[in-house]
Amino acid sequence: MRSSTDTTTKTMLVLALLAALAVLLRLGENLLPLQLGAIRPGLANTITILCLYLFGLRLTGLFLTARVLLVGLLSTGLFTPGFLIGLGGTLLSLLLMEAGRRRQLFSPYGIGILGAAAHNTGQILTASLIMQSSALFSLLPLLLLLSLPFGLLTGAVAAKTLPFLKQYLH
Fold this sequence. Notes:
Blueprint: H1 4-28, H2 45-76, H3 81-102, H4 108-131, H5 140-169
Helix pairs in contact: 1-2, 2-3, 2-5, 3-4, 4-5
């Protein structure tokens, strides 16, 4: 019989491993040859979707805090405009994905698309506030269009991976 300490230790270990994987995926996107400026596929969002389904909002928030801070330290710099823009996208994405998951409005595929669209929207909102300009909203239609294939990709990977992780964790 497992004690609650064992479960907590195992959960924290899995979260730490998933955070490390998400950081590697995010940093690895910088190496992709098909980058269009700052547009990235958002592969680390696959791990966020998995965390939401496996651990819920509170622990996914902990996971994202670690991920955002580590990426900030290793890439954008902490509390720089790039860091804050990414944080804005991450927060809006987390809140909307959790709402969609909790209300069972979408499968992981739909959650992936919702997360990508929310992340792009949150980034544009944050960047517009920082720059005090609404001109960035002209980019939103293109970003929302790109949310479809990229979100579908992250959602599909999460949907296919979720049963294996559930079996391992429970």
